[in-house]
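Reviewer comment 2.1 asked that we show a complete input and output for one of the modelled complexes. We chose the zinc ion case, as it is the one discussed in the main text.
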Amino acid sequence: MITIAKFENFFEAELASSLLLENGIATELLNVRMLSMAPGLAGQRLQIELQVPASQKEMALLILNIQDSINPAEELLRAEGAILEGHFQLTSGRHSGMYVEKIRLLQNPSAAKELCAQLATLLADYDIDCVVGPAYGGIALAFEVASLLGKSFVFCQRKDGQMTIRSGFDLNGVKRVAIVEDIVTTGGSVEEVNACLSQRGITVEVVAALVDRSGGKADFGVPFLNLLQLDIPSWEPDQCPLCAQGLPLVKPGSSDKAPAPDTTP
Ligand SMILES: [Zn+2]
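Response of the prediction step:
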């Protein structure tokens, strides 16, 4: 066996390893146990080494390079701290090695605008007259996309638990719309927006999101476009490999976040 890659992060190493295993290449991860006993060593001094049989090195590199060519949206989201890696307790109580911090999407408007420009490009060929965003995450994004496409904008919000179009908007010119959302996890919010628009005789032509976390399960009956698909594994605490590694657990957003239907797997 020879080392073909080194990782500071267990999750990344495990991801690369499982990708190779799926492709029939045997792997070994070195230093995992050492790092679990002494996490302080992680970094330049001690890294997890991914090994494969020497005869399969080329194939393994090929597979990992393909996976490695991170898409620009993912690169940006990581740079903005919107995609975090570590050991997280989700609002569902399950544990995960990755967390999407939605609010970071909006903290740097120039990054958000860049992502919106990519969404607008995807939506350019659709015959729509308005872009609709669900509160709160979708509002700024839908507004920016509408602006870029030269279309009108409205937003939906929950009122007494019911998804509604914010009162006061003039809906006379709103017939065919695109829904723009930040992250689709279960797709529940988008379904609700869809239903509320249908009741008004408004047709949803297309749904677009920055990130699809549904694992391909979201199906709105219209084209669903996204910049990035993230399949984030999560585990019950007693089956969590990161707990087994002894990595400290983080509860992101626990201070101010009420459990929302669209934030947990
Ligand atoms: Zn855990």
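The chain has a mean pLDDT of 87. We note this here for comparison with the apo prediction described in Section 3.2.
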